[in-house]
Amino acid sequence: MTKTLLCIGYSYSAQALVPHLEGWSIIGTTRSAEKAAAITSGQVTGVVWPGTDLTPYLEQATHLLMSASPLENGDPLLAAFDLSAYSFEWVGYLSTTGVYGDHDGNWVDETTPLAPSTRRGKQRVAAETAWQAAGVPLHIFRLAGIYGPGRGPFSKVRKGTAQRIIKQGQVFSRIHVDDIGQTLAASIAQPNPGSAYNVCDDDPAPPQDVIGHAAELLGLPLPPALDFETADMSAMARSFYAENKRVRNDRIKDELGVALKFPTYREGLADLLRRERDQP
Predict the structure, then answer these.
(1) Which residues contact 53 (CB under 8 A, 6 or more apart)?
(2) What is the CATH number of the domain that holds 252?
(3) d(CA 244, CA 97)
(4) pLDDT tens digits, residue range 246-280?
(5) Which of 210, 229, 247, 275 could cross-link to 173 by cystine, CB 3.0-4.6 Å?
(6) 3-state percent helix, strand, coil for the chain, nearest multiple of 5
(7) How many domains does the chain have?
């Protein structure tokens, strides 16, 4: 029997799972007909949602991945459907490490109480709770800051617009999109409903170190160092610095057997640069 994955929100992270699902049928929702047409291929069918009745696709799906963000009034899929009526073998929900809130640079793991301080984090906790009550074989993946092909610091460093924002003691956890893909695939191969997994690399690091290393790899001067308190930043950018924590990833290794392809940003940035240079 052919396996079918329905991705609600055919996101950057969801796309990283597809290469691990050889022979599967993939259905991905997007918000426009143009985007739906662009992702449609031999393996992937693009569907516009909202706008299309998802009922036949939910009935067809053996696996479901929720990649779309919650709205102010809750999760959009749960608001539209009773998912307990469908026969999924595996359901994945892509959440964020922002659900843990601020821990002043200390370590958190999946047993840490959820205490978000931002609006986005609170919405995610509410969505996780709703999904846990949805009557499906749920697996929650709390993603750290995502980077990968097309989403790295090199463009800004080359343009001279990159900045090294310095906030004493601040670190962020990150994850290469390819490691998200292999983690999801590992969970599909050995489902454990009710589990939550932190998906991050081994090296929570100050953001200025990442930018500095990118400049070093390019052989360019270090971008200017700016104090966080006086730096000209958008409210959105500044909000990310409101929480400071180091996120443990032992569970994806111990339970799922994941061996990270990019255990730190150093390997990850080197990979991005190598891919750039290998392009014709």
Answers:
(1) none
(2) 3.40.50.720
(3) 11
(4) 999 999 999 999 999 999 999 999 999 999 988 77
(5) 247
(6) 40, 20, 40
(7) 1
